[in-house]
Design brief:
The structure holds 2 protein chains of 2 kinds.
Chain A: E1 3-19, E2 25-41, E3 45-49, H1 56-64, E4 71-76, H2 85-89, E5 92-96, H3 108-118, H4 123-137, H5 152-164, E6 170-174, H6 182-199, E7 202-206, H7 210-216, E8 219-224, E9 227-233, H8 234-239, E10 244-251, E11 264-269, E12 272-278, H9 284-293, E13 296-302, H10 306-315, H11 317-321, E14 326-327
Parallel strand pairs in A: 3-7, 3-8, 5-6, 6-7, 9-14
Antiparallel strand pairs in A: 1-2, 1-4, 8-9, 10-12, 10-13, 11-12
Chain B: H1 2-16, H2 19-46, H3 55-71, H4 79-89, H5 92-96, H6 102-132, H7 141-167, H8 169-172, H9 176-189, H10 201-209, H11 217-223, H12 230-264
Helix pairs in contact in B: 1-6, 2-3, 2-6, 3-6, 4-7, 6-7, 7-11, 7-12
Classes of the chains: A alpha/beta, B mainly alpha.
Chain lengths: 328, 266
């Protein structure tokens, strides 16, 4: 395994001036990120999530070199971003969901042509990439349309292709699916998985859409108040913050709410009952207990919703900032 | 170099997409040209040698002014306006991601624009003007070449001024005020409203030293053959010096801006 991104104890403060009185301004130091440390291996697809203002964009900006960290050290593809930004720019691709790298008044094709020259993509490579992207992202019919006439989904496909045109080692995607419909989202995710598999591109993805994470990423980092509060697999995330699974039981006959050790009956509707139990506990003894007392027609288990878990993580954040954060 | 040529070429094509705007602009140039011509005719009837110009010189000057207005982008506009917009929206972050010099990029883009505006908003009103009035033309090929060079330098000087104005957005977030101030200076000191040769006494001396004199007065004097011999070289040198000073200042401003954005946070 080769590590592509190394972040060690990185912090970033901003000085904000606030008006006090007519002419006086006081300077306040706002900490965007503190003591951030993580390593990303080549070919990993990592989800980077956190509420608004948590420090996601600050981190991405430091990783691309357009912000200098106040403390700590970081390297991307063996380079120090803020010092060797231009050199690094040839090795990374960036997509900001809310911005575009494409030229507004020009056909998509011309934007790609300019990028080819900017990044000095060799001709054969450029042709292969264009063909691949046209196929996978269905760009063919759009190439001669001016960017201003493209729909959001079409433009985003163009932007993703633009970011990958020079075969970057690392791609940062900042909310790539923002504002896209279900089909476009799903196509985009397929494309990202495909690219990652074929080229071994390392992907760091920030998003508010947790489906993105569930479907693309094998690893999640959660940042809140500038601190990394979780770093690990998706399954581990489920066990955090007291996540609970739900057992739905259909009894043959309606019965009073079940009272079982280790589980809580949260809802009763005729013969159907909902029991909530800790995500890390086994459902087997619970089911055995129920079967002992009642005749069971059907059973199903609902895994904790990642969204609910994250919500809990965000709201429990005070509990997370004092003890050392959970890092897998 | 190939990249910057491509940037200029695409910029040319971008501006050429908006044909209706170009036609409307040419029409406006012609209307104003005619209005100002009649004003000038009245002035030169009172004083047939005002500022060392005869009435033909004066009328030619009017149409040159209309032709240079957009070519030089006297008031603002062009690639530099885009930069200010991108700073305000934060899109400039994407520009910083590219392994290309920001200054070179925008200069190439603005030159592409200038060529388009010269061929459309420059040539067309001049043809209309020459059909309506009796104008004066450069007498020989050399004067044409010198004029062309002077126009190119006028564009680079104007680009330098506009780029500094736009870069102020890095600190002010909005360059509207600075831009308006710069537009007023440009209108007045370029000689667009009144030729600099009509400025009284020392104001003329001062105005001829300011960068805005490069926009119109210098190219017009070369076109009209008012300058000969070494004076031609001095005029071009004057424009070249301002180009160097302004581009150097832009370069410095962008380094400072970059440091501010990158180190202090945008």
């Amino acid at each position: 395994m080769v590590s592509v991104i190394k972040v060690e104890g990185v912090g970033r403060d901003f000085t904000v001036r606030k008006k006090v009185g007519r002419l006086r301004r006081n300077a306040f130091v706002v900490t965007a990120v503190t003591d951030l440390s993580f390593v990303v291996q080549r070919g990993e697809m990592v989800g980077y999530i956190g509420p608004n203002g948590a420090g996601k964009s600050t981190t991405i900006k430091m990783l691309t070199g357009i912000l200098v960290p106040s403390t700590g050290e970081l390297t991307v593809a063996g380079l120090t971003p803020s010092v060797e930004r231009t050199e690094l720019a040839r090795k990374i691709g960036v997509v900001f969901g809310q911005r575009t790298t494409l030229w507004w008044d020009l056909p998509l094709r011309d934007s790609f042509e300019l990028l080819r020259r900017i990044y000095r993509v060799p001709d054969p490579r450029f042709r292969t990439n264009m063909r691949t992207f046209s196929d996978l992202l269905d760009l063919g019919p759009l190439l001669d349309t001016p960017v201003r006439q493209l729909s959001l989904g079409q433009r985003m496909r163009g932007d993703i292709a633009a970011a990958l045109l020079h075969d970057p080692e690392v791609v940062y995607l900042d909310e790539p699916t923002i504002g896209l419909d279900v089909v476009s989202k799903s196509n985009l995710r397929d494309f990202l998985r495909e690219t990652n598999r074929e080229r071994g591109t390392t992907v760091l993805l920030t998003t508010h859409d947790l489906d993105d994470i569930e479907q693309i990423c094998s690893r999640v980092m959660v940042i809140d108040h500038g601190r990394l509060v979780y770093d690990g697999g998706l399954t581990g995330l489920h066990q955090l913050g007291g996540a609970r699974r739900t057992l739905v039981v259909d009894l043959v006959e309606p019965a009073a709410a079940l009272e079982l050790p280790g589980a809580e009956t949260v809802r009763v509707e005729g013969p159907r009952q909902w029991l909530s139990f800790p995500a890390d506990a086994s459902a087997a003894p619970l089911i055995a207990d129920i079967a002992e007392r009642h005749e069971v027609a059907d059973l199903s288990i609902r895994e904790p919703d990642i969204e609910a878990v994250i919500k809990q993580l965000y709201t429990n954040t005070s509990a997370w900032s004092s003890p050392p954060p959970f890092v897998e | 170099m190939g990249l910057l040529y491509a940037v200029a070429h695409l910029s040319f094509r971008r501006y050429s997409t908006y044909r209706a705007a170009t036609l409307a602009g040419i029409f406006t140039n012609c209307v104003f040209g005619v209005i100002i011509c009649f004003t000038y005719i009245a002035v030169w009837e009172q004083n047939p040698t005002a500022g060392g110009y005869d009435v033909t010189d004066a009328l030619t000057y009017v149409w040159l002014g209309q032709a240079m207005l957009m070519t030089v982008a006297m008031w603002s506009g062009g690639a530099t306006d885009e930069l200010a917009g991108r700073i305000r929206s934060g899109d400039v972050a994407l520009d910083l991601h590219r392994p290309v010099s920001l200054l070179g990029w925008y200069l190439a883009s603005d030159l592409g624009r200038a060529v388009y505006h010269l061929l459309s908003r420059g040539v067309a009103p001049t043809i209309v003007g020459s059909l309506l009035f009796d104008l004066r033309y450069p007498p020989d090929v050399l004067t044409w070449l010198v004029f062309a060079l002077s126009v190119a330098l006028a564009v680079t000087v104007s680009f330098g001024v506009r780029m500094l104005v736009s870069a102020s957005a890095f600190w002010l977030l909005d360059d509207t005020g600075v831009k308006q101030l710069a537009a007023v200076c440009a209108t007045f000191f370029s000689g667009l409203t009144v030729p600099l040769v009509l400025f009284p006494g020392w104001t003329r001396e001062v105005a001829s030293l300011l960068p805005w004199a490069s926009y119109l007065q210098v190219p017009a004097d070369l076109w009209l053959g008012k300058l000969t011999g070494l004076d031609v070289l001095a005029a071009l040198g004057f424009q070249a010096i301002w180009t160097v000073i302004l581009l150097w200042a832009c370069h410095g401003a962008l380094i400072l801006a970059n440091r501010k954005v990158v180190v202090q946070g945008g």
